[in-house]
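Input/output pair, single chain:
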Amino acid sequence: MRTVVLATGNRHKLAELDEMLAEAGVDLEAATPREFGDPPEVIEDGTTFAANAEKKARALAAWLRARGCRGDTLVLADDSGLCVDALGGGPGVTSARFAGEPSDDAANNLKLVQELRANDRTASSAHYACVLALMRVDGEAIDGTRDVVHFEGRWDVEVRVEARGHGGFGYDPHAWIDGGARTVAELGQASKATRSHRGEALRALVRWWKQRQGMP
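Output:
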């Protein structure tokens, strides 16, 4: 089994990625940065999800390398967020800190509702976006000449000022799907994984990995 260290301190993302990897049927075993010590904080100042995901992957790989971690250990970083059409694509890469620092889900959701109402809207088309960045701890090429590979996922939703449901995290209670029949927060974890932006990105990674390993 190859170890994949998940470069996120978000316990919800860790749980989602860990569970999806475990069910993917590949020879990849998830580990958390905390298993290796106290990982560095990374300032997510990129203008794209890909830039932030790659920055986090490179920072964690360098930290693990300095700690003597095996070079062929993999690092997987995630950056994701909500892009609302009525808000010009915002909050986008600032989704986790939409309401400022420090922030939390409740504050970010309140800010979302306030911004929608400020634009005379009670709803808007939107989508969740996710980019995963994968690399080796030693920085050697992982795909041809590339030392980092990206995998992307998207999930179209409608955001509303109305919230419903207690599952998921982030903006899920305000993200309506299936023609307004339910919110993402009303989905179970397994159902969410099959439909979500993060699930789509991880499935792309799994397909790539299986092809590299000659797996069916």
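The first strand starts at residue 2 and ends at 7. Residues 159 and 175 are 5 Å apart (CA to CA).
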